[in-house]
Design goal:
Blueprint (H helix, E strand, L loop, with lengths): L7 H11 L20 E6 L4 H7 L6 E5 L6 H12 L7 E8 L10 H14 L3 E6 L3 H5 L11 H12 L4 H5 L2 H4 L2 H4 L6 H16 L12 E2 L1 H9 L5
Parallel strand pairs: 1-2, 1-3, 3-4
Antiparallel strand pairs: 4-5
Amino acid sequence: MAYSKPNKQQRNEDYLKQNGNSIPNKNPYSEEVEEIKKLFLIICEGDNTEPKYFEAFPVPSSTVEIKGGCNTKTKLVDYALTKKKLDKYKDHEIWCVFDFDRKPDEAATQPRDFNSAIKKAEKNGMKVAWSNDAFELWFVLHYQYLDTAITREELYEILKGHWKLGSFHNDAKTIKFCEGHYDRHGGFNSDKQKAAIKHAEALHKKYKGRQDYAKHCPCTTVHLLVKELNKNLKM
C-alpha cells in the first residue's frame, strides 16, 4: 500500500491527541471573515421628521438623503432610480420614504401617482416605506392601534397629546425635536417599537394582495424598513 503523507491539519490533530488535548471543532487555519452589514440608501420626501428619525438609528452602513420638491411621488422614485444606477450605490438596498398626504385639490391625480410610484419602485428592485395618510401614523402606532381612516391633522392632534405640545406645527417640526424621535419612541427592541411593528403588521395584513395603495388608510410599511435597520444595528 502506498504511503500517504499526512497533511498539515492531520499532523496538528495527531500532536494534540498525543498531548491529551481536545481537537477544536473549528479549523485553526480558517480565515476569520467579518460579517458584512447591509448597505442602505434611504431617500426621504420630508425635510426633518423622516430623515432625522432614520439618521438616529445606529446603523453605520446607512445613508439618508433628503429629496424634497419632487412634486409627485413618481418623480421621487425616478430620482431614486438615478441613484441606483451609480456605482457608488450599486450594492445598496434603496428605500423611498413618502406618504400620501391627501390634498383635496389634487384628488384627481394623487391616487394614480401614489399607486404608480410604489409599483415602479418595486418593479425596479427598490423598496418603499410608504404611509397613508402621513408618516406620523407610524409614531401614533407606538401608543395605540387605530384602523379607521384618518387625516394627518387628526394624527397631529393625537401626537400633540402624547408629546404634550402646544402647537404641532411650531414644535414638532423643528430639527431639534425631530432629532429626538428615535429615543422618544424607545429605540431598538423597546416595548413601544414592538407595539408599533405589531400594529403596522395588523394594518398591512388587512390589505394583503391589493395594490390600490391610495385606498389603504390607515396603513404604513415603515415597519418593514425599521425591521431591516434593526438587523444591522451597531451593537
